[in-house]
Amino acid sequence: MTSEHHAADLLEDAAVAADEAVRVDDSLDEENTLKKDFVRKVREALEAGDDAEVYNLVEPLHPADIADLFELLEADERPALAKAITDLMGSEVFAELNDHVRELLVEALPAGEVADIAEQLDTDDAVAMLEDLDEDDQQAVLAEMEPEDRAVIEAALSYPEESAGRLMSRDFVAVPEHMTVGHLIDYLREGRDIANEFWEIFIVDARFHPIGTCALSWILRCPRSIALTDVMKRDQSLIPVDMDQEEVALRFQKYALISAAVVDADGRLVGQITVDDVVHIIQEEAGEDVLLLSGAGDGDINEPIRDSYISRVRWLVANLLTALLGATIISHFGGAIEKLVALAALSPMVASIGGNAGTQTMAVAVRALATNQLTRANTGRILLRELRVAMLNGVTVALLIGIATALFFANPLLGVVIGTAVVVNIITAGLAGVIVPVLFDRFDQDPAVASSVFVTMITDSMGFFAFLGLAVASGLV
């Protein structure tokens, strides 16, 4: 091919790329989300059964944008979209799909098609796609896979959920310790069965135990005659195959890892975890803790309505039961409230302030537990710290609400009573906000799951009891 022809081909390719860029830009808004008009055009083409038009609209999109399109459509429209853009439904699209959307879509596709897609995916992505399927559907897909791929997926599925074994990829590069830099470079250039993407080389001994790592940048800068054992980094963060994914993420954060070796119970190298997988886990775990604090379950807008109902209603019922305790306390002071109606107006305020203070402290404690900042070694110090913060907050808020109440109701004693009750309740909230999550953690329960229910119960009950009890004890009523 002449240089002129080559240049012409390059220009033609550039023009096609530019045209596709314009078409993609037409479908995205300033926040890189799909425009409402674009989604409407796709939906209209689907309703008309015009698969060619659907394909033309979707073809320029990035796989991540195609995944977003599936999430924006109704559940009954997604199979039709998948059928219209079969050639575009590659592994990259499935890897980007929301878990609930992917599960429903996989269930709607024939087992053979799902198996073909799974074989294209990295191990961790293939496992994520298959792990939530019903046992029968899962076995049907595995039966359609090549024996080698099936064995790898089944091995990964044998590990506990949300463990390093499920998260790891088996596509890594490991070489024996006797190699030189030159031998390694030749191996990487000639090897056909090595991973497509990697940042570090794992050096292993005769038992396949990892003994060090070499970054690609080191390999490229070293003379060919240098032995790998002379340039490798011997200090490693080895990840046990059964380690929880949240602990894996914390280790990557703490030691600024790019990738890490995963080892089995015998110390043999079985996979690697890379930072791109960990970023996803960090986002997932952070969002999960926030949602658990509120009792909202997965909090996923693509989650089936029945699942959302079940995950939320149980905590609402729990809140209802704990609210009965507050109502019981109020009823006990019914006579005092009848004598001074202001008590009825002000008591919810005391409980609300305490509840907010407890939520603040609890959120800090849950986050500290999740990031290993709050441990057995410093629980006492953290508790004292939050107690001091609570005392300062309590005095500040008490002065404001006490003065305002005394002036508004022309009753100085009422101002003193409500101010004292606020101090007591905020201090109680500070203690409960730390102690409750810590106790859940000590009993190996997720502190984010039910802490809010118990902290709210404590602050509401103490708020009502302190305010109404002080009102009676002080002779206010």
The low-confidence runs, each spanning 5 or more residues with pLDDT under 50, are: 1-24
Tell me the total number of β-strands: 6
CATH topology of the largest domain: Tetracycline Repressor, domain 2
**Level-1 CATH class name of the largest domain:** Mainly Alpha
Order of secondary-structure elements: HHHHHHHHHHHHEHEEHHEHEEHHHHHHH
Question: Structural class of the secondary elements?
Answer: mainly alpha
Tell me the count of domains: 3
Q: Ends: how far apart?
A: 101 Å
Can you count the helices? 23
- Mean pLDDT across every amino acid position: 83
Overall 3D geometry?
globular
What CATH architecture of the largest domain do you see? Orthogonal Bundle
Characteristic key phrases:
disordered N terminus, 477 residues, 23 helices, globular, mainly alpha, Tetracycline Repressor, domain 2, 3 domains, MgtE N-terminal fold, three-stranded mixed beta sheet, CBS-domain, single chain
Lay out the secondary structure.
Layout: H1 3-27, H2 36-48, H3 51-58, H4 63-72, H5 78-84, H6 91-96, H7 99-108, H8 111-120, H9 123-130, H10 135-143, H11 147-157, H12 164-167, E1 174-176, H13 181-190, E2 200-204, E3 210-215, H14 216-221, H15 228-231, E4 239-240, H16 245-255, E5 259-263, E6 269-274, H17 275-294, H18 305-332, H19 334-339, H20 342-370, H21 379-408, H22 412-442, H23 447-473
Parallel strand pairs: 1-2, 4-5
Antiparallel strand pairs: 2-3, 5-6
Helix pairs in contact: 2-3, 8-9, 8-10, 9-11, 16-17, 17-23, 18-23, 20-22, 20-23, 21-22, 22-23
